[in-house]
Amino acid sequence: MTIISKFQRIDASCIEYVHPWTNSCAEATAGLFLHSILASLRIYVTAYVLTMLMRGKVPTKKDIKYTVLGVIQSTAFLSCHAFGYSLMLCFLRKTMGHFNFLTVSFLPSFLSSIGAILVERPSRRSLLSLYVTNVASETLFRMAVWRKWVTPVRYGEVVIFSFSCSLLLYLYRSSHDEKDSIYSLLRFFVGPYEERGYERGEEVNPGPTRLSKLLEYGGSHPQCCHPHSCLHYWVKSGAKLFTIGCGLQLCLKLLLQMNKIMKRPKVAFRNVFQLDTLRLGAFFAGFGGLFRVISCLLRRLRNRDSEVHAVPAGLVAGLAFFFFRDNTAALYAMWKTIQILYNMGVSKGHLPPFPGGSVFVHAFATAILFHAAVIEPHNVRPSYWRFLTNISGHRINQMNRECLDVFGLESTKSLKIAQERLMRR
Questions:
Q1: How many Cα atoms are found within 13 Å in the side-chain-facing hemisphere of 258?
Q2: First vs last C-alpha separation in the chain
Q3: pLDDT tens by residue, the chain, 425 residues
Q4: Residues 382 and 253 in one domain
Q5: Which stretches of 9-121 are DSSP H helices?
Q6: Which residues in 215-252 are b (16+ Cβ under 10 Å) and which e?
Q7: What H or E segment, with its residue span, contains residue 129?
Q8: Is residue 90 domain-resident?
Q9: Among residues 38, 195, 42, 17, which one has the least CA distance to residue 99?
Q10: Beta bridge partners of residue 10, listed in sequence order
């Protein structure tokens, strides 16, 4: 009966379903478009300015121009999503004379996403498609769990992260595209000495100290490319990563609680002395430190160096993800690995190329997300549901889902659950 319900036609007008707050399709679309422009500007001004400041350099006129143009183009991209989605919903209803399971959200989102992603600069399309694929895959998993098709695996995100990182680190130590940002991130965690093609050079010694003499205990193996002893290599890098991680977590918490801090300054000191503030630092230090330790031990045990060492070292290093478990990071590592392996397969002629693949993947993944946000919003990642709520000015909450209950997915009840969950956060 549930399968048959998916082919049910809905005779509700777009006024009854899409925009019950106004009788005008043009007014509804224009209102959503104007609000999405303002919301998009806030998002991208913050993102681009922070990116520019994190470079640690005084921005040049070229940097400022690039940032301004980037904000405008990205704002146009996100606004076109909102504008196109609302427009296509009403257009398909007027063209077909009814709604069905695909046209209530999936097809309008797919069509509008293709137009929107083409507005964005080509260099960002792959990154955006990777992000929405990340969120869409988690949403599909939530939908499968809700239907009791699958059972969640405890610490599954740690397993995914560990295996993905072991493959990425193997590529980092063997052959990889140095321009890819993921390898810059790995270089930050495990250092440049483990990267393929690194040649050992002379290091500047600041002078002997009691601590440095202690850390030089045991020396380094001839196959190790890092300067100083292995112990020095492990401890110094671990301490640096721990400090950076804790600092980032503290800054993020203070930024998110700025309104509370303005009213009650004591909240800032409370954040400093919480164990939760140490989680990101523990993950940073654990990941980078364990990879270095295992790599050095394998070189000593086997008396040779090999890129294969990155596989067990990466698996062990990934266990540090226990300190900072996050589905977004785990799925990003997984999909990034798949993307790199696919591109390698295409370049070697083992796999067929997919022209316009990033555009199609982005549109398809976004369509899944928008469809779930309308049909069963309680299965959408809370952070993404909050994003959709803000970018639409709460209009996505006002869409009348009572007519969708004929599909048997309790869409009206699902909306209430999603709203209550958002209010609790």
A1: 4
A2: 36
A3: 455 456 678 888 999 999 999 999 999 999 999 999 999 998 888 888 777 766 667 778 888 888 889 899 999 999 998 889 999 999 999 999 899 999 999 999 999 999 999 998 888 888 899 999 999 999 999 999 999 999 988 999 999 999 999 999 999 988 777 777 888 889 889 988 888 766 654 444 444 554 456 555 556 778 888 887 888 888 888 899 999 888 888 777 776 666 666 666 665 666 666 667 788 899 999 999 999 999 999 998 998 888 999 999 999 999 999 999 989 899 999 999 999 999 899 988 898 998 888 899 999 999 999 999 999 999 999 989 999 999 998 999 999 999 999 888 889 999 999 888 877 76
A4: no
A5: 14-17, 25-53, 61-96, 106-119
A6: beeeebbebbbbebbbbbbbbbbbeebbebbbeebbee
A7: helix 122-146
A8: yes
A9: 17
A10: 99
- In this structure, the answer to whether residues 137 and 193 fall within a common structural domain is no
Structural contact between residues 287 and 140, judged by C-beta atoms closer than 8 angstroms: no
Cβ-based neighbour number of residue 99 at 10 Å:
25
Contact 290, 317 (CB under 8 A): yes
Per the DSSP assignment, residues forming a β-bridge with 403 are: none
Residues 176 and 51 in one domain: no
Q: Which residues pair with 99 in a beta bridge?
A: 10
Q: Which two tokens stand for residue 216?
A: 């030089």
Range of the domain at 380: 2-152+375-393+408-424
